Amino acid sequence: MYRKQSAKMVNHLRKRGITDEQVLTAMESTPRHKFVAAGMEFQAYEEKALPIGFGQTISHPYTVALMSQVLQVQKGQRIMEIGTGSGYQAAVLCRMGAQVFTIEKNTSLSRLAEKRLKSMNCHFVIRTGDGSLGWQSYAPFDAIIVTAGAPVVPRNLLQQVKEGGRLLIPVGTAASQELTLFVKDEQSSFRKIIIENLNFVPLKGVDGWSEEV
User: Does any domain span residue 166?
Assistant: First the structure.
């Protein structure tokens, strides 16, 4: 039923500059309509953010595609995601062959995402907690992707990236952020690359925004 809408979404992403065929294939094969709130299914493949419940949204398809492309995912890599949300970004990364470790602050969202990801036979580990602190017991990671905007780059996340690894995180004010890539070299220094200006929900936690934001 949604095959035509999915193909149309992928064509749109190509026109927006997404060139990684692995990303495009993963997104075309991931049923985005299963990751949105009930009643929103027929809008799932449109270029818009949609509610997923509990005051949260699923990111625009372009945002998910861009972030997945910037990560340069290789099969078998260990990737930590901060901000599971509905589980859609994690599902795309799984379809790209990654081992996904994902953290969600909201317990209800975390449970729903876990159920969806299990139904799709994804290789993942999920927990509920403060994503700004990362997941030390599984570190280091080949890549870390943060799907919420932070006021500063959390120190713990930088420390949990492998040499040669990548941290992709939106940084800025609560209203507007710069999607920023940090690439770790052999001397444990980071090369910083600004990707694009985008808007995300706030990253809440010890090394993020307070609950009042």
Answer: yes
